[in-house]
Design a protein that fits this description.
The protein is about 50% helix and about 20% strand. With about 625 residues, the chain is α/β, with parallel strands linked by helices. The strands form four sheets. It has an eight-stranded mixed barrel with strand order 13-14-16-17-18-19-20-21, surrounded by five helices. The protein binds ligand C2E and magnesium ion (MG) (2 copies).
Length: about 625
């Protein structure tokens, strides 16, 4: 294999390092290993140096290289530090005549070093350290070898920076996540975390066939305690309750505090539903024993509702509601010791039933409509497409947010009907606008995971497309990561069917889940929509720029285009554009708006010359 070929192989390999997990150490190890392979040198080493000049990581291709790296670190002198400080390559073709390194030189000579060539690891303004190439015979390196080495050093530096950025971001989001997932008073998991665990439990239950149960615990006289003894005693009581609760659990069970005096216990892997009843009874009697708080005997009783779920898909959140409903019955006194609800028989919570019933009628009564938000080309600001967003204005309750509406539609089985309606509506609107415009206008429609997995989904999309003779690539279906994670085998089949029809597929809110782009890249995805939290982090989290840049780079490597979501300011627009985003969407350009307003906007933009969509124009349409 020619050295040319080897070099390009190694560069390609680096690119792949990034698409996968790219831990810093393995990038470095691979660098030193491969460079020895393609250049006439005996060994290689890397030292990473932070601004205060303390070396951070070391990689060495063999013991000799390790020795020379350590020597430089120990002496605080050597070609590596010189290259780092000057940002220039350092060439020592014969160490015997070398005077620049009075301490390092003689000791390295004794250890068998004859020549050394060092290249700075730099990226933009950042200096990361240096790559040392060692040789046991004196002599120069060819110009070509020097250029190759610097190329490898530059590429490695770029990837190192990305890896570092991602690691930093993970750290900071992990910390924020920990705080946002736990109750500050008791340290127990909060509602968000318990809902997440419930989802996991539901999935686990499907696999293991074992039941999970939720106990919903409400303290009966807590308000009296608070009013009588004050909030400090109230708080300490809650802490004492949480400790006692945790003490009752089996390993693997979770206790959480929802807020106020409400606690939840998630029991997994139950052998029999009666086990949950037994634990509920234990909880009740344990909480009935007095608590001694600040020298005061606090007496309390608790109402406990139980719900058991088994092999039901996506039952997580409902299980909580059911346990809540059971608890209320007990509190009202129409239960026994505690009510026992079986998921498959019990009634749904009343308000949910009402809203669901109303949703059933909403479509027929014309309460649903779609709004559209422009998606613009990042560089030119031209509108290239719009995203359809579902709206429900409830006759008495007013607007119901999609965050409530979509799960409701999914749970009630209305999602197919409603989703299909959105698709038809959006496609018809697109057709109308297109006839007034020269440029192609793409239409994005959101598809929920459950909708996508329904039998016949691809066929229903094909049916809508058959209503006109438009290029199917003008339809984009947006889906979140959950589609790819839940039942990936089936997802792949459906997505391939959709690709056969010719529509574009987008990953929505990318970065909010935990899948890597490389994983998602196994699916036939065309577009990545970068979640708005990245853009929102630009000012606060330095590493977010690097991460966004890396994601864009990877996405492009995987032949995907990138849309930045949630662009709210001019600075954010400039930054995502600089980082290489293809398209933008966000309040800076336009808020979601009704079809008539969008139509006006499109018409004016065709007549007028304003290539960007100033905030003022956008605002006047909302
Ligand atoms: P999404 O698909 O990520 O849609 C973008 C959401 O971000 C919209 O919220 C939009 O109003 C909001 N947004 C756009 N630009 C900005 C910005 O600059 N700043 C901020 N803070 N927000 C911005 P919306 O309309 O509330 O929709 C929420 C989610 O509901 C959507 O997120 C989508 O996942 C889902 N959804 C909406 N319509 C449908 C639908 O017809 N079917 C399905 N399955 N889901 C839908
Ligand atoms: Mg979307
Ligand atoms: Mg989104």
């Amino acid at each position: 294999m020619s050295s040319e070929q080897k070099l390009s192989d190694i560069l390609g390999e680096f690119a792949r390092t990034m698409v996968t997990d790219f831990p810093i150490q393995s990038i470095l190890d691979r660098l030193v290993e491969s460079i020895v392979d393609i250049l006439p040198i005996t060994s290689a080493g890397v030292t990473l140096i932070s601004p205060d000049a303390i070396p951070r990581y070391v990689a060495a291709s063999d013991d000799a290289a390790l020795c020379f790296e350590e020597l430089q670190t120990e002496l605080g002198e050597g070609p590596c530090l010189a290259a780092y400080h000057t940002g220039e390559a350092v060439t020592v073709s014969d160490l015997r005549g070398e005077t620049r390194f009075p301490n390092f030189g003689p000791r390295a000579l004794v250890a068998g070093l004859a020549a050394v060539f060092t290249f700075p690891l730099r990226h933009g303004d950042a200096q990361l350290g240096a790559l040392d190439l060692y040789r046991d015979t004196p002599g120069t390196l060819s110009h070509k070898a020097m250029t190759d080495a610097q190329t490898l050093a530059d590429v490695a530096a770029a990837y190192l920076l990305n890896a570092q950025g991602r690691a930093d971001l993970l750290d900071s989001t992990q910390q924020a996540r920990d705080a946002s997932l736990h109750d500050a008073l008791t340290g127990l998991p909060n509602r968000t975390l318990i809902l997440e665990r419930l989802e996991h439990a539901a999935l686990r239950g499907q696999r293991t066939g074992k039941a999970a149960a939720v106990l919903f615990i409400d303290l009966d006289r807590f308000k009296v305690v608070n009013d009588t003894y004050g909030h400090r005693v109230g708080d300490e009581t809650l802490i004492a309750v949480s400790k006692r609760l945790v003490g009752l659990l089996r390993p693997g069970d979770t206790a959480a505090r929802l807020g106020g005096d409400e606690f939840v216990v998630l029991l997994e892997d139950l052998q029999a539903p009666s086990e949950a009843a037994a634990i509920a009874a234990r909880v009740k009697s344990a909480l009935a024993r007095p608590f001694v708080v600040s020298g005061i005997d606090v007496h309390m009783t608790a109402s406990v509702g139980v719900a058991v779920g088994k092999d039901s898909s996506g039952t997580g959140a409902w299980l909580l509601d059911d346990a809540d409903a059971a608890m209320y019955r007990e509190k009202r006194g129409d239960g026994h010791d505690h009510r026992f609800l079986n998921l498959h028989k019990q009634h749904l919570a009343e308000h949910r039933v009402a809203l669901e019933r109303d949703l059933h009628w909403a479509l027929g009564r014309g309460e649903l409509h779609t709004e559209y938000q422009p998606i613009v080309a990042a560089a030119s600001g031209r509108i290239t497409g719009v995203e359809a967003l579902l709206r429900w204005v409830h006759p008495t309750q007013g607007p119901v947010s999609p965050a409530t509406l979509i799960p409701l539609a999914e749970q009630s089985g209305l999602i197919a009907e409603i989703g299909q309606w959105v698709l038809e509506q959006a496609w018809a609107d697109r057709h109308r606008w297109q006839s007034q415009s020269e440029d192609d206008l793409a239409m994005s429609v959101n598809v929920s995971a459950r909708q996508l997995m329904l039998a016949g989904f691809a066929a229903s999309v094909a049916a809508v497309l058959a209503t006109d003779h438009t290029d199917p690539r003008l339809l984009t279906l947006e889906m979140t990561e959950s589609v790819f994670v839940r039942d990936s085998d089936r997802a792949l089949v459906v997505l391939n069917d959709l690709k056969d029809i010719g529509v574009m597929l987008a990953i929505d809110d990318f970065g909010t889940g935990y899948s890597s782009l490389s994983y998602l890249g196994q699916f036939p995805v065309d577009i990545v929509k970068l979640d708005r939290s990245f853009v929102a982090d630009f000012e606060r989290v330095v590493a977010s720029h690097t991460v966004v840049s890396a994601v864009i780079q990877l996405a492009h490597d995987l032949n995907m285009t990138v849309v930045a979501e949630g662009v709210e300011t001019e600075e954010q627009h400039l930054e995502v554009t600089r980082l290489g985003c293809d398209s933008c969407q966000g309040f800076y350009f336009a808020r979601p708006m009704g079809a008539p307003n969008l139509e006006t906007l499109m018409r004016e933009r065709i007549d007028g010359a304003d290539p960007r969509l100033p905030l003022a124009v956008a605002a006047s349409f909302t």
